[in-house]
Amino acid sequence: MTRDRPRSEFPEQVTQSTRQRHRVYRLVSDAFAIHGTVPAAIRNSVFADLDDGAISFVRGVPDPSLPADRITPLYSLSASGTPAAPTGRLLVRFAQGDQANAHRAEVEGAGYRIVEILAYAPEAAWVESADGSIAHALARLGELESVAGVANVEPQMVSPPSYR
What domains appear along the chain, each with residue ranges and CATH number? Predict the structure, then answer.
């Protein structure tokens, strides 16, 4: 694994949503996320923990010895913006009255799987890449957007809380 391998599998930029193509997440070059336990050797480089350490934001470049399947890059909507980590989940909304469950086969054909249909909005669902890869979930957004009836796709990005 090369030092930048985790980044090479991820797109350089990701649109915030199909409806807001002008808002684009761009890779952050000097930090990354670890999903799961942070090795003790880099614990002092952590600058944010989310969900009791489920995702940690780390300063620097990932070391080749770190498990590549648990490392993701961080993204930001602006050069000085708050960094955000992709979770691998995408919120897909179909047209009003068009239930997400009716599109299960097409979603699977695009390389994704429905993991949760929102009880309060049955036209919306959380989906993940069929292979479970966060990188694939982001890199193949176009295939998901082309599924008939899709009105909007938004990658789930998580950030540390900001206080005003």
Answer: 5-79 (no CATH), 87-158 (3.30.70.80)
